[in-house]
Amino acid sequence: MENNNKRIRKSIWDNDGLRSFIAALACILIGLLIGYIVLLIINPDNANEGIMKILKNFMNKNSEKLRLKSFGNTLINTAPLILCSLSILFAYKTGLFNIGAAGQYVIGAGAALYCAYQFSAKWYICILAAIVASAIWGAISGTLKSYLNVNEVISGIMLNWISLYTVNALMKNYIRVGEKDTLDLFSVKSPALIPNLGLGKFFGNNERVTIAIPLAIIIAIIIWIVLDKTRFGYEIRATGLNKNAARYAGMREKRNIILTMMIAGALAGIAASFLFLSGFKTWDTNQSSVPAMGFNGIAAAFLGGLNPIGVIFSSYFIQHITDGGSSLTGLYPTQISDMISAIIIFLCGFVLYMKLKMSVKKGTRGNRNAPDPIKDPVTPPAPAAEEEKKGGEA
Predict the structure, then answer these.
(1) pLDDT per position as a tens digit, 243-259
(2) What is the pLDDT of residues 275-301, one digit of tens each?
């Protein structure tokens, strides 16, 4: 019985997916606890109500229709967050930290909206334009990294700001007089709007709930298949583990780095097109900071254990907490919700650390159970010649 329990415990610690889940759950609980303590310090009387409002999110609404509509809004924002986290994850598998996902997201938004306003293009053409533009933007960082050894974080940060002000200037041609935001695609009945195929009726007639939501999940599954079940995915992971060993094995690491950054950029571009072509959001031409969606993708990727399936759930959780924080208005300053979300997102960075500690614990336990070479010496096998001699004597 005791041996069976040991085997069960060993199998649990050997399961990488389960270790990722435990680490992520620990970070979430610690983050919520710290957030609750902050609420207690600021306003003790409303701390319990405040933390419950964050966790309940759309359940805070008064009617069933409003709850469904609010839930739909959370899903609308979750779809691009899934794609941004996939962008971070995909590049990370090659050993690259794609901080430039935010800029690739911005370029994708600009390309999609430009096609929508300038050419009145169909939604799939606009998405294709976003994919191409963002892939090229990602390839810039990949090429600089491959041939000039320019750190992708540095080039990514620079490209983030270039993309922001480029798109701001481009979108100023498509705003109403006296306003700063671009035209609402719903108000102009644009063919660039992603169809909802009746999904809105399940979310309180929320017309902005589109097929982008199931498409994001499908793309996550495809990325999982590519990374885990294909030769290209194996080369990507091998390059990330050891670039020199991958080169020695005949893999073209420079090509893999550039191609990986192109795919990562394309995923960020799809994310932007999914959000802006749903009609849920317009572009603010006066914004002076890069949209947070690309950076939130970093948190979702690590909270999801750098697993394409895991990021589906981690992306929803982060968006759920973010939207739930908006319900605190009246109880706490509006900045409190952002701060609590930031605490949880900050703790997501410890997921890999906690996984590493659990792996070390597993390894230590394995070493403890290993035979002692002094107390339990291992007798080496007899040489082949001696065995043959014994056989002849027999």
Answers:
(1) 878 888 888 889 999 99
(2) 999 999 999 999 999 998 998 999 899
Q: What angle do CA 259, 264, 270 make, to 5 degrees?
A: 125
Domain 67-334 matching CATH 3.30.70: the answer reads no
The residue ranking higher by pLDDT, 169 or 344, is: 169
What's the half-sphere exposure (Cβ side, CA atoms, 13 Å) at 262?
Answer: 11
Average pLDDT over residues 375-379: 53
pLDDT in tens, 140-167: 999 999 999 999 999 999 999 999 999 9
Q: Region 172-179: what's the mean pLDDT? A: 85
Q: Rg of the Cα trace of the chain?
A: 26
Q: Which pTM value belongs to this model?
A: 0.86
Query: Average of pLDDT values for 309-319?
Result: 93
- Output the pLDDT for position 90: 97
Domain ranges of the chain: 67-334
